[in-house]
Design brief:
Elements lengths: L1 H12 L6 H30 L6 H34 L1 H7 L2 H27 L16 H7 L5 H34 L4 H30 L4 H28 L2 H18 L1
Helix pairs in contact: 1-2, 1-10, 2-3, 2-9, 3-4, 3-5, 3-7, 3-8, 5-7, 7-8, 8-9
């Protein structure tokens, strides 16, 4: 979480990072900070105190914010891949297509889409009947475990969950995959070895993280939850709720020279300011 906060502060504070790529990275860092904050405090409190109970309203609130942020991140990652596609495949059109207004619209669309969609599912879950048992077979409140607790007919909610997974997982993943196929094809046509290495270094880490992230989500939300897959899905949930936010700052940003320079500059300002 600390790494994401550092990235967000640097992107806001340093004018050299006021570019489309870092604007979206700042949004991603903010997203992952908020996403971790919806799960980890309650999880750690339960582990430390042994009290693992949560109220129904608290569970719905946790699901709403986590689901909204998850949907927003899926959309934002596809936007980030589109940004890299334009930068590498259509550099002459990049400044026009990724203007300040376009970046704001793409980011706002991602946030709005995620929160609006999850607001609908949260409203539908609140209308379900729950008659016990009330033990959630998960370490946080998620859609499928909540639906399984319900006494109502789960068919509608399961169909809705599958449809939302298509819209917010499969479609962004396919768009991201298409962007990177075009990027790789363009990189292979670069005559200079140095140019190819620079382009690959910009996008290879993004592609690895995106593949792991979308892959785990597709298995968790689109595959049927059988007894065999139940525990495996919990392990995969740890990847996209804990590990991905932990490593993303290092993979996306902290290895970049621009971010390292901005971090050094900020540290020097703080040191001289304290002196």
């Amino acid at each position: 979480m600390a790494g994401n906060i550092v990235i967000f502060v640097l992107v806001v504070a340093d004018q050299h990072l006021h570019t489309p790529m870092y604007f979206f990275l700042g949004n991603l860092s903010c997203l992952e900070t908020c996403c971790s904050s919806t799960i980890l405090p309650r999880l750690l409190a339960g582990l430390l105190t042994g009290d693992r109970t949560i109220s129904f309203s608290g569970c719905l609130t946790q699901y709403y914010f986590f689901g909204s942020l998850l949907g927003t991140e899926c959309l934002l990652l596809s936007v980030m891949s589109y940004d890299r596609y334009l930068a590498i495949c259509n550099p002459l059109h990049y400044a026009v297509r990724m203007s300040g207004n376009a970046c704001l619209q793409l980011a706002a669309g991602s946030w709005t889409g995620g929160f609006l969609c999850c607001g609908i599912t949260t409203l539908l879950i609140s209308q379900l009947s729950f008659c016990g048992p009330n033990g959630i077979d998960h370490f946080f409140c998620d859609l499928i475990p909540l639906v399984k607790l319900s006494c109502s007919d789960p068919h509608l909610m399961e169909t809705l969950a599958f449809a939302l997974s298509l819209i917010f997982l499969l479609v962004p993943f396919l768009l991201t995959l298409m962007s990177y196929i075009c990027i790789i094809a363009t990189i292979l046509r670069i005559p200079s070895m140095t140019g190819r290495q620079k382009a690959f270094s910009t996008c290879s880490s993004h592609l690895i993280v995106v593949s792991i992230y979308y892959g785990t989500l597709l298995i968790v939300y689109m595959f049927p939850t059988t007894d065999i897959l139940s525990n495996f899905k919990k392990v995969l949930s740890v990847i996209y709720t804990v590990l991905t936010p932990l490593v993303n700052p290092f993979i996306y940003s902290l290895r970049n020279k621009e971010v390292q320079q901005a971090l050094k500059k900020t540290c020097r300002k703080l040191m001289f300011g304290l002196c």
